[in-house]
């Protein structure tokens, strides 16, 4: 029941090389709002979609009535005209005492299975909502675990998720996260090779993380990652400091980044990621969209026929 045009192998459709960008805002930056209130806010502000973090205060992935709540949410998103991506970065949804625990790298196989189970639920939710991707990350390498073992655990834990994603037709978009085993785009390619380059494995690119630690400038990072882009997160950031900042508070020059992103033909959501500004979420949601629209390249003019009228096919 996807509400979005079918994408090609690199996340691009069959249209022109430069595609209008679609902006969303993450619910992890609106954690003090009820989910329906957050969605109504984003629709009223003019966002194209929402990055939905599965968490206890919004759509609890462990709730007994998850399927029924997901069906209701799908109807609500349709009514509001919002696209969606499903994100799985909730801090304490599986363990109230360990941030992002358990992870896909934990020594205990049962703990790893719990994280895999969460991702399998996320794929089911994404299929019901018509989401363009399911986001996830590797987790921090546990103390006493060597790197080869960690990579093996990650590949094994993700294998059933990728099978489910292929069945559902929803890409799994792994995010390089500073401090995690899979921290960079190069690390993503390590995982891709270990898994045999499966079709439904894609990349979540966080623009702030590019500024923070990637060797390439953010615009070049976008171009290099283009064939695997399935989800994009965006915020400001400074070099060497993993702190998500409101636009204008960091060091990123956004127009070249958004121009590069539009040129890839990427048609998924570009989601504002400000989880530590949730206390003022409505303010930052209202402020962020005009900033992004000013920084984004202007859409190409509509094609016209010989009489000078807009073409009926465009």
TrEMBL record:
Residues 1-20, 286-314 are annotated as: Disordered. The keyword Isomerase applies. Residues 39-294 form the Xylose isomerase-like TIM barrel domain. Residues 304-314 have a biased composition (Polar residues). Keywords: Isomerase. It holds the Pfam family AP_endonuc_2. One of its GO terms (molecular function) is isomerase activity. InterPro entries: IolE/XylAMocC-like, Xyl_isomerase-like_sf, Xyl_isomerase-like_TIM-brl. This is Sugar phosphate isomerase/epimerase. It comes from Streptomyces rubrogriseus.
